[in-house]
Amino acid sequence: MESRVIELTQSAHKYGNLNIASCGSEFFPPDVFGASCRKAGLGIPIIIKIDGLPNPVETDIPKDKKTGKPRWMFRERKWVREFLRYHNLYPTDNILIERIAKRIYQVRPENSKRFRPRANVTKSTPSSNFLSGTISKRRLDKLTTEQSLFPKQHRKSLDLRLNQSRPDARKVNILNSPKKNGSSTVDSLPYLKELNVKIIENAQPIQFAPNINEHIHRWAPYVQGFSALFVQTVLDQYRKIYRKPVVLDPFAGCGTVLVQAKLNGYLSTGTELNPLLQFIANTKLNSWDVSPRHLLKTYKEMPRNKRRPAPTFIKSTSQFKKPVLRNLEIINAGIASIPTHTEKQEKIKNLLRLAFSAILVDCSNLKRSPCLGYVKNKVIHESTPFVLFNQKVEEIADDLHLIQWQHKDFIHTESNVICSNAMAFKHKNKFDLAITSPPYMNGLDYVMNYKIEMGWLEFVHSQRDLKKIKDAMVVCDNVSKGLIRRFYESSSTYTNTWIEEVKANIKKNIVRRGTYRREDMPYIVHKYFDDMYKVMKNVVFCLKSGGRFILVVGDSLIADVYVPTDLLIARIGLDLGLKIEKVEKARERRSGQIRSYKLRESIITLIKKRQSNGS
Ligand SMILES: C[S@@+](CC[C@H](N)C(=O)[O-])C[C@H]1O[C@@H](n2cnc3c(N)ncnc32)[C@H](O)[C@@H]1O
Predict the structure, then answer these.
(1) Which CATH number fits domain 2-167: 3.80.30.20, 2.40.330.10, 3.40.50.720, 1.10.3720.10?
(2) CA dihedral 126, 130, 132, 135 (to 10 degrees)
(3) What's the angle, vertex CA 609, arms to CA 603 and CA 612, rounded to 5?
(4) What is the rounded CA–CA span in Å between residue 364 and residue 372?
């Protein structure tokens, strides 16, 4: 059996284009190449069986109108994105195309050894009508044995297929969910009993949104951030106990905890794996001595006669309108021309880079709400980059004025974020308070969501760079399958009875449902807690006796299984020798899967017991 491996590009995700040029023309029958448009004549189609999708697809390969050469992609493309979604495949992942009969091919992720049988996915009967481009099993079987060459009249009848859609398995599962109208309040009772803990109601503003009006915090809009007010409430709560606490945030993000700690004059440190966010946090923390007058002067003197090309690997030309893109390139070149001979120049340049990163999404055809996605008909004027950049720089200059007037005693208070993995980094300092909000289990992708800023600020240069950072993070539910496979093949992982129970229930429910977005979900859940265990272990190590570890985290509902993330984190704390001081409910939220199911976001306070010698 002949096969070819092809690498996925952005275009596969966006338009369903699989770049099959590397397969070579000898891999396909010579008559498969059709005219550039359907009307002008199709080639004799091949059949593609797709791993994970119920129906094979019939397609030819179009030729270019001008050159007459193959365009090296399949004409039928609707199935591609469904296939990528099913297997959670990303640009730079590889897929395998095998020729299993003269005109029949099979497509699957490169590493999946097995071609999944149809029983795994939504069932369709031979008599049902299929998605455009797909053919019935009976017909496929016939073709496989006869090696039919699809006479023209047959092709016409295939095109007249009715386009009735299959029942949506996801919707059916939601309608039949045993968790409809349920809540974590009820489902967490057995876990609370075992921990001997009660949830305290304590509604709090824990989200970033109000920060957009707060000095310094407002420099960069980071939707996943914490509320500065919440951090201040925590700091106020322990003011008397620690007097001048040394503060740690292992998941520093854009630095909300650390900025707030510095505004109180407290020393602080953090780790953050996304280099863009680490840069933003450090710039917010360590530019307080920059003269606003110098900042504005440097900005005004920036040359406007050069362009620094936009990053190409993230498809900037689709993300921005042409004149907008040109003006962004002018601003970017202006910033790049600022020399960095002195520390002062370097700080000013960093502030301007931060300001530039903060306006990119607003200038684009996209929106972050909270995930990055295209917005139809977003009106962006050619001058928008200049207007927004000017506003942002002035906003920063105003805040610098204020800091130098109101917080001058703390300008040099040490605070920094290290670009490192919180699972591995060993701090030398000892901390009184660790305050953090870890990534949520089925939450956001903290890398792909910031790819535009990461690309323009040149923290990454390819999709591969992005993937590398993502794979090192605390797991989210769109990591590569290979990463999860390597995890469950490894032996030294943390687990406990609750994790094993949750895993077993998720496995059972995936079988009951017949299909699920990620069949390896039980292991993703397990990896999440293993990752969190590693981070918590590092934090516990550097926490002073009597120090507190405060985490804001939300629980989850996965494949109709309640995952008590907050209580599991508390239990890991117990395993690491901490005491659960309290678990507070800060907010109620709805499950993304079963909207009528109520989840909570909790504040978990763990305390490191004082050693018996009283130290
Ligand atoms: C919920 S956000 C934290 C937001 C932060 N509290 C703020 O206000 O900006 C979680 C952060 O953890 C980071 N992260 C994920 N895995 C990490 C790891 N292994 N080491 C360090 N940081 C990580 C993500 O990039 C993300 O910025």
Answers:
(1) 2.40.330.10
(2) -10
(3) 170
(4) 11
In DSSP terms, 579 is beta-bridged to 607
Residues 56-97 pLDDT 10s: 888 999 999 888 899 999 999 989 988 888 777 877 778 999
- Indicate whether 114 pLDDT > 90: no
Ligand 1 centroid–CA 396 distance in Å is 24
d(CA 206, CA 199): 17
Residue 347: φ, ψ to 5°: -65, -40
Q: How many residues are present in the chain?
A: 615
Task: State the first-to-last Cα distance of the chain, in angstroms, to the nearest integer.
Answer: 70
Q: What is the dihedral of CA 6, 9, 11, 13, to 10 degrees?
A: 90
Mutate to test the pocket of ligand 1, among 453, 473, 603 (most ligand atoms within 8 A of CB): 473
Ligand 1: which residue has its CA nearest to atom 13? 251
What's 71's DSSP letter? -
Given a contact cutoff of 8 angstroms between Cβ atoms, the answer to whether 134 and 164 are in contact is no
Q: Which stretches of 90-220 are DSSP H helices?
A: 137-146, 152-159, 169-175, 184-187, 189-195
- Closest CA to ligand 1's atom 12: 251
Q: Is the pLDDT of residue 454 over 60?
A: yes
Distance of CA 229 to the CA centre of its chain: 26
